[in-house]
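Appendix B, Record 12. Input sequence as logged:
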Amino acid sequence: MIDISRLSGATPVDLFAKVLCDGIEHLARRGLEKGYEPHEDEIAGIRGRINVLASCRKFLPLHGRAVCQFDELTSNTLSNQILKSTLRLLAQDPALDKELQKRVQIIDQRLEGISRVQLSSQCFRRVQLHSNNRFYRFLLSVCEFILRASLIDQRSGKYKFRDFVRDERLMALVFQNFLFNFLRLELPDAKVKREQIGWRASSETDVELKLLPRMETDISLRRGSQYTVIDAKYYQNTLNQHHGVDKLHSGNLYQLMGYLSNLPPDSSPKPSGMLIYPQVEKRLRHKYLIQGFEVMTCTINLNQDWGDLKQEILSLFH
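Logged structural output:
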C-alpha cells in the first residue's frame, strides 16, 4: 500500500512521483524482476552456443577460447527500463517539488545496470508480465499515465506534466482502470478481464478480416450465473442534448451492442451489457432489453466517502 496522505496541497506531478518512488523502493526491497538477455562474447571455454565462424576467424580454439552466444540473467528487463525512463521523465519537470526531484534522481542512480528506453505506447504493449507481478502491472500503468499526461516544451525540449483533469481521454483511462481494479479486488469470486471479441463476419476479399477494427472490452465480468460486458465512459456531461432533450451518447450504445452481438451465440451464461458513467448532473439507473440483451445504463457518484462509493458500485452487481 502506498501512503499519499502526507501530500496535502501537492501538485499532480508530485503525487505521481511519490507513488512511483515508493513503488520502486518496494520492488527493490523485494527484489527487482529478472529476465534472460541474449549475449555474445569471447570467453575461455564454452558456454551456450559457439559462433564457429567468428571463433575460427580469430583462431580462438587454438588458445582454448571461443565466441559464444548465451543467455544471461539480468535486471535489465523492459519493465525495469520503463520504470527508470519514467523517473528521468519526471525529473525534467520544473514543477516537481525539489525534495521529490532529489529523491527521483537518487532512485534513478540506484537502478544501475538498467538501460533507459524511448517511452512510447508500443513500448508498454511489448511488456509481458506474469500473474505474480501484479505490483509491476500497477506501476507500469502509472508510468503509462505519466507519459500520456506529459507534454514536451518545444523550446527547452523538456517534458511538463499537464492538467489531465480537463482531458476527457485521460480521465476516461483513469476511470476505466479504477473500475477494472476495483472489481478485481472487491469481487474475488469473479473473473475480471479485458476481453478481445472476434467479429462474427466473413469476407471473400478480406478472408482474415484484417481490416476490421479490433474489439476489446473495457471490462468483462464473469461471476456465477452473471456475465456482464462493461463499458466505462467518462464525460464532463453524462448526457447529450438533442433538440433540448437528454440522450445517451449514441456511440457508446452502438459500441456496447457491437460487443454483445458479436459474442458467440451459445455464450453461457447469456451476456448482458452495462454502461457506467461518473455521476455529473443526475443519477442514472435504466434497464433496457435490446435485441434480446439486457442492457443497463448507470452512473456512480465519485464525490462521496469511500465506504459509500464502494457500496454503490457493489450494489450494481448483486
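The chain has three domains: 12-34+76-162, 39-72, 168-315.
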